[in-house]
Amino acid sequence: MRTLINGIRNRPVLSFFVLTYVYSWLLWAPTLMIPMEVGPDGSDTLIWIGVGLMYLGGFGPLVAGAIVVKFGGGDLRTWAGQIVTWRVDV
User: Fold this and answer.
1) Exposure string for 25-47, b = 16+ CB within 10 A, e = fewer
2) Which of 7, 41, 65, 86 is 20 to 30 Å from 15 by CA-CA measure?
């Protein structure tokens, strides 16, 4: 665990990209096995599960950014505050 934290601190950009791809593709890969046609009974539950997984996988950059900030020694509250604070030079 200590090696992983040191790796994140030493290479935050690389860690961000690796974590983004790992998180996203762990959620997106199962959707490749879902048939994209609706069955004769009209059940489209599997399709909606696939849509949900695709949607959640889109949060990969956000999740990876939070992990890198947390284990890189930053403050998540400050980081999240910077995301929602708009600074416009007038």
Assistant:
1) eebbeebeeeeeeeeeeeeeeeb
2) 86
